[in-house]
Design brief:
The protein is an alpha+beta fold. The protein contains 6 helices and 14 strands. The strands form 3 sheets. Strands 8, 9, 10, 11, 12, 13 and 14 form a 7-stranded antiparallel β-sheet that branches. Strands 1-2-3-7-6 form a 5-stranded antiparallel β-sheet. The model has no long low-confidence stretch (mean pLDDT 95). The chain binds uridine-5'-diphosphate.
């Protein structure tokens, strides 16, 4: 039996020690949580889909020069990644009002925003990931001014690229959450994209019908979660070498 050392276990993923120093293995679980883990379920096949979709997105971003932690996919549920020091912020970018943005400002869900808006949330489950400003981020030393600028610039670039990529397959990128980490090179730390980009972390709507193809289906008890994630993968053209994940688990 392979007894790898577990480094960290989160709600949807596990990180194991990698084969070489500076690498980790990211394992995608089928667990789904929402509302700060008050709502939980196991959605069979979700981990396989998110592993594949995140691989696809990270590879495409790498090809346009957006550095990220992804090295290669190892198997159905695992990918080899670069070990980074995670910056404790969730960086959310929004194009259309939905979710907490709609609630906070009383905006109807689906209303286009005047421009893309980036927000930072402090990653702390006990506190419910509060919205923070750049003042908090620098005062509490979560990131430097330069790192904030780098994250803002990269996030806009990711938004532009992914809006086009999803748009080309009939999907509207409503909003998404990304995370960044520091990659140390001697005394210098470069901020690169980390974590995952998948229907768990993006709002993706069918461009024609506005049907939700993302985790809101789970949050709002709409059903068809796996079918929707599968549809996203199919439209991105990555279903060819995917196992059957609907009905009876991963075949
Ligand atoms: N999001 C996420 N993880 C979180 C919170 C939000 O991936 O812990 C994503 C969410 O899927 C959506 C975007 O970030 O694509 C904005 O989420 P929002 O602030 O509207 O929060 P929610 O309505 O999900 O509570």
């Amino acid at each position: 039996m392979n007894r790898r050392k577990k480094i960290y276990e989160g709600k949807a993923k596990i990180l194991y020690e990698g084969p070489e120093p500076g690498t980790l293995i990211q394992y995608f679980k089928d667990d789904a949580t929402a509302f700060n883990a008050q709502k939980k379920a196991v959605l069979e096949g979700k981990g396989v889909l998110n592993n594949r979709i995140s691989e696809f997105v990270m590879t495409r971003l790498n090809s346009i020069g957006v550095q990220n932690h992804f090295i290669k996919r190892l198997n159905l549920r695992e990918q080899l990644i670069r070990e980074v020091e995670i910056i404790p912020l969730e960086v959310v970018c929004r194009n259309i009002a939905a979710g907490s943005m709609s609630e906070r400002f009383g905006l109807p869900e689906g209303q286009a925003l005047p421009r893309s808006i980036i927000e930072f949330y402090f990653k702390d489950d006990k506190l419910g990931d509060p919205l923070v400003t750049e003042e908090h981020i620098t005062a509490f030393n979560w990131a430097s001014t330069q790192e904030i600028d780098d994250m803002l610039a990269t996030t806009l670039r990711v938004n532009d690229y992914l809006s086009g990529m999803f748009g080309a397959v009939g999907i509207t990128l409503v909003d998404f959450k990304i995370e960044y980490g520091r990659l140390w090179e001697g005394d210098f730390a470069r901020v690169i994209l980390a974590d995952e980009i998948s229907p768990d972390s993006c709002r993706l709507w069918d461009a024609t019908t506005n049907e939700k193809l993302d985790k809101d289906r789970f949050r709002r008890d709409m059903g068809g979660v796996i079918e929707s994630y599968t549809e996203v993968a199919r439209r991105l053209g990555i279903m060819k070498d995917m196992p059957r994940v609907i009905e009876g688990g991963v075949a």
